[in-house]
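Q: My labmate handed me this sequence with no annotations at all. I'd like to see what the chain might look like in three dimensions before we decide whether it's worth expressing. Could you predict it?
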Amino acid sequence: MAGDELAAEVPLMQGPESPGDSLEEDLAASITSEERHATSPSAFIWSLSFAAGISGILFGYDTGVISSTLVSVGPDLSHPLSTLDKSLITSSTSLFALIASPLAGILADRLGRRYVVLVADVLFTIGALWQAFTGSVAGMIVGRSVVGLAIGGASLVAPLYISELSPSKFRGMLVTLSILFITGGQVVAYVLGYVLAQKANGWRWMVGLGAVPAVIQFGLLMMLPETPRWLVQAGKEDVARVVLMKVYASETGMAGEKVMRDIKREILEQEATSKIVNPPSSGNDPWPALTQFQHRMTELLYVGGNRRALTIACMLQGLQQLCGFTD
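A: Here is what I predict for the chain of 327 residues:
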């Protein structure tokens, strides 16, 4: 009778438990225990978070240094700056950052997260040096526009790079630190602006020094790997497995294997959802880039998880503006 009562409580759709299911549950339990007892990220995680976080410093520095620059530039750009000149120099950065952000997302999926940050470093360097050596308002606008492209790409992809490489337990902390680097970059810009404001051609040093963190980040990222998620999407599972072994070096090899399986499952689910929301079209597509953009917008608006994330992000941005803090 007791056995019949227990059998009656088992759900009708539940099949017999296989040894593989039991092993996977034991594996997940052991990994969860390891993550719970881990007290801090490994040196490897700290190093890649710092390297990627330099993008935040560059973002903050290049948006903060322009205020000191416009005060100190005087007639060095062929004539004293008018209100229109200052407006164009300042707004060009935001405009081109807005243009670069969606393009950076597409490039990050096709070419890799690390690649986009490296390209942004090149743009940061070119833009900083261009501003430092220019002698005209038009040249200054061009330099600020190039920096805007770099900001738009790096500010989108650098936190993504950190989040995809970080263990889940420390992911929020490390991404938050990268955002705090933005404020740190602004502080550095204001301090240097105060120090160099009274120097001859001090404003050129202000904008030119923005190339230094970019060069440092470029060198550091050359020694760091691509994210496992992108590597799996690109069919480089062996390389992704090596990267995961580095990320979870302080734990057993089972942790990396479980994360590998989770990544594969998420990618398959994402592809299945994409096929449902965006059925494949028949015939040759004359505008593949436009079609891909339409598919992305459809997934953003019609997939529940994406729509909720978008709503939360827009609400946070709106509340930030309503609070009066716009930096």
